[in-house]
Amino acid sequence: MNFDKAVEAIIKEAQERGDFDNLKGKGKPIDLNAYFETPEDLRLAYSVLKNAEIAAPEVELLQEIAALKERLTSTFEETQRSRIKKLIQGKQMEFNLMLERRKKHSRG
């Protein structure tokens, strides 16, 4: 039995057992926008990270910025607010630099 037929047989058995019945997004079209918006040279790496439930550095930075902004809304002491604002600015600058590097890399 060749490889393709072996894989097809394994998939068919899994379907018959109902292994695919409760998959996330079942019955919905696959949204490939994020895939095609990702630079071609990074797609595989990002796909592996996503499947391993590990966020890309850009995503982690955005999450940190969002958490700091949330913290800022509940902080009333002015020196703390000032410190948090500086942290937000630094993280935002880091994020922007990361995007610029990525753009230059994909162009060059």
The secondary-structure element order is HHHHH
The tally of strands reads 0
Shape descriptor = elongated
Q: Residue share in helices?
A: over 70%
Question: What count of structural domains?
Answer: 1
Structural class: mainly alpha
Count of runs of 4 or more consecutive helical residues:
5
Radius of gyration: 22 Å
- List the uncertain runs: none
Q: β content, as a range?
A: under 5%
Please summarize the sheet with the most strands. none
Oligomer type: single chain
N-end to C-end Cα span? 46 Å
Mean pLDDT across all residues, rounded? 87
Q: Could you characterize what this model shows?
A:
The chain is mainly α. It has one domain (3-107). The protein contains 5 helices and no strands. It has helices spanning 3-17, 33-37, 43-51, 57-73, 78-107. The chain is elongated, with a radius of gyration of 22 Å. The chain starts with a helix and ends with a helix.
Topology:
Layout: H1 3-17, H2 33-37, H3 43-51, H4 57-73, H5 78-107
List key phrases describing it.
mainly alpha
Quick structural overview:
By secondary structure, the protein is mainly alpha-helical. It has helices at residues 3-17, 33-37, 43-51, 57-73, 78-107. The protein has one domain.
